[in-house]
């Protein structure tokens, strides 16, 4: 029996189904509705935000036989052929493995051939930033003036690496990270359709952990559904992701914000002994401390609306109680120092976390260890001291005058010289 993973099975088939990218899909839908489609597009944004999916929907819309308000109908023969992956006029290339000038020359030769099944031939080039400079330069003329039946769609996660001359020839659309509440809604729909018994807090944790990537969230949901068929709760999510227990995060944050260095060190070492991923421990506690800052200063008022804090109800109640007891300066200090901890190594040690915990909690000791630099007002310049009076010195006796050099003796005139007869 052939099965599909969740992110492929539940991939959007129309612009209206794309999650969290209304600023892009609205424009694309209007362009297909009005028949004003460009010959080249650049879709850039983080992974899992819907770039390739939107490119496929656009390719389907320009070939659809019965557009529905700018959306493909998904009922005509063209749409069904595209959905089944059997459409010959949509060519997808991975620039990471087809990045050389030979592949671009092959495209330049084939764009002149007319479409086989549809009205437009669409090239979707994924990871376009991986093209070499020679390939990019060879692609410029074709991208600028392609045949009328050809559309290029470039997708990338790193638009800054693409040549500016290529970017200027495309209509650029920037995809954003999908908000966690929209990801949560989508996960609830998929769970209901797939019969996955997952509680609300578990899905909210998966949504936060995916960091704006719907594809990552759907993959995690499928892993949870396979691993825990009897039901998915927050404990199962923490176990699968190696996060440790949420009570441990709260205990660590409580120790840091109340100045309990011993308690904080105990939580860190116990987490290491239990095999908890220290990177995830660092990340989750940092998120909790950010929530503490928002609860302290982002609670609304005349200056603006209340900042939402995405936490389970029980954890949110405990955090509010903790914030009411912790001084504001310690929250900011904890956020700064904890955020500076470097956990980039493959086998992270507990030492960076322990040092940061002690520095956060023992404020007086860390302040005393820092070199004190006191600024003093500049003093007025002191008057120059008077030169000391020296006693009169006795006059030295005049030294003997050196004899003047005697002038050289004058030479006698030639007439007075005696004639000496020549030698025989």
Structure description:
By secondary structure, the chain is an alpha/beta fold. It has three domains: 169 residues, P-loop containing nucleotide triphosphate hydrolases (Rossmann fold, 3-Layer(aba) Sandwich); 62 residues, Helicase, Ruva Protein, domain 3 (Orthogonal Bundle), CATH 1.10.8; 113 residues, Zinc Finger, Delta Prime, domain 3 (Up-down Bundle), CATH 1.20.272.10. Helix content is 47%, strand content 6%. The protein has a five-stranded parallel beta sheet with strand order 2-3-4-1-5, with helices on one face. Helix 6 links the parallel strand 3 and strand 4. Helix 8 runs parallel beside helix 10. The N and C termini lie far apart (145 Å). About 4% of the residues have low confidence.
Descriptive terms for the model:
Rossmann fold, 18 helices, Helicase, Ruva Protein, domain 3, 5-stranded parallel sheet, Zinc Finger, Delta Prime, domain 3, 424 residues, 3 domains, 5 strands, alpha/beta
**CATH superfamily caption of the largest domain:** P-loop containing nucleotide triphosphate hydrolases
Choose one word for the global shape. elongated
Poorly predicted parts: 300-304, 412-421
**Biggest sheet overview:** 5 strands, parallel
Please identify, by name, the CATH architecture of the largest domain: 3-Layer(aba) Sandwich
Care to give the gist of this entry?
The chain has 424 residues and is of the alpha/beta class. It has 18 helices and 5 strands. It is 47% helix and 6% strand.
């Amino acid at each position: 029996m052939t099965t599909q993973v969740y992110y492929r099975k539940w991939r959007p088939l129309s612009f209206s189904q794309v999650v969290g990218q209304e600023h892009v899909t609205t424009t694309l839908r209007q362009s297909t509705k009005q028949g004003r489609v460009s010959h080249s597009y650049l879709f850039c944004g983080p992974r899992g935000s819907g770039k390739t999916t939107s490119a496929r929907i656009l390719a389907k819309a320009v070939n659809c036989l019965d557009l529905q308000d700018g959306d493909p109908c998904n009922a005509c023969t063209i749409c069904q052929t595209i959905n089944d992956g059997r459409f010959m006029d949509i060519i997808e290339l991975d620039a990471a493995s087809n990045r050389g000038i030979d592949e671009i020359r092959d495209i330049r030769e084939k764009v002149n051939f007319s479409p086989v099944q549809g009205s437009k031939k669409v090239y979707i080039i994924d990871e376009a930033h991986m093209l070499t400079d020679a390939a990019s330069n060879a692609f410029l003329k074709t991208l600028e003036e392609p045949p009328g039946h050809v559309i290029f769609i470039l997708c990338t996660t790193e638009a800054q690496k693409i040549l500016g001359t290529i970017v200027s020839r495309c209509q650029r659309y920037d995809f954003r990270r999908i908000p966690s509440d929209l990801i949560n809604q989508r996960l609830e729909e998929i769970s209901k359709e797939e019969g996955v018994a997952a509680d609300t807090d578990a899905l909210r944790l998966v949504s936060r952990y995916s960091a704006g990537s719907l594809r990552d969230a759907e993959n995690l949901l499928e892993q949870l559904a396979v691993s825990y068929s009897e039901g998915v709760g927050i404990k199962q999510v923490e176990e699968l992701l190696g996060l440790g227990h949420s009570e441990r995060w709260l205990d660590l944050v409580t120790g840091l914000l109340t100045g309990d260095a011993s308690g904080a060190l105990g939580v860190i070492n116990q987490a290491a002994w239990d095999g908890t991923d220290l990177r995830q421990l660092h990340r989750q506690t940092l998120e909790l401390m950010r929530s503490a800052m928002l609860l302290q200063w982002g609670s609304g008022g005349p200056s603006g609306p209340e900042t939402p804090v995405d936490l389970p109800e029980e954890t949110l109640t405990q955090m509010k109680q903790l914030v009411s007891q912790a001084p504001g300066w310690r929250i900011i200090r904890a956020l700064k120092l904890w955020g500076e901890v470097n956990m980039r190594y493959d086998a992270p040690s507990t030492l960076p976390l322990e040092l940061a915990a002690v520095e956060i909690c023992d404020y007086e000791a860390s302040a005393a260890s820092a070199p004190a630099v006191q600024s003093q007002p500049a003093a007025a310049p002191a008057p120059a001291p008077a030169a000391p009076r020296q006693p009169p010195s006795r006059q030295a006796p005049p030294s003997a005058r050196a004899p003047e050099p005697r002038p050289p003796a004058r030479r006698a005139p030639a007439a007075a010289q005696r004639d000496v007869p020549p030698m025989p």
